[in-house]
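Lab channel / #folding
Pinned by the channel admin:
"Please post every new chain as: sequence first, then the structure tokens as a reply. Keep commentary short and put observations after the output so the thread stays searchable."

First post following the new format, from NK:
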Amino acid sequence: MVLVGDIALVGAPAELFTQLGLEIKNQPPFRHTSVVGLANDWIGCLPDQAAHKLAGYQVWAGYHSYAELVSGERLVDQAVTMLAPLAAACEQGL
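Reply from TO:
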């Protein structure tokens, strides 16, 4: 994660399905949050659980995706968790 002014950049090692990226972007604590896909690794497409149920584009296990069913939601939870201390440090002027 990188903070530039009031913009937080969240790196994800996958091509996140739209809903996952929106869940990261729409949560506080920063006014602007952008998700950068394929950052530092490539684990393939990462769908959310709802997309898995629809069995559409790139949700089946294969060479294009090395993640399990709940990996997308876990990544969102971890990203949001990691943003909190970054925001606290900013408030303290660190």
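NK: Helices lie at 18-25, 49-54, 71-91.
TO: also worth noting, The two ends are 15 Å apart (CA to CA).
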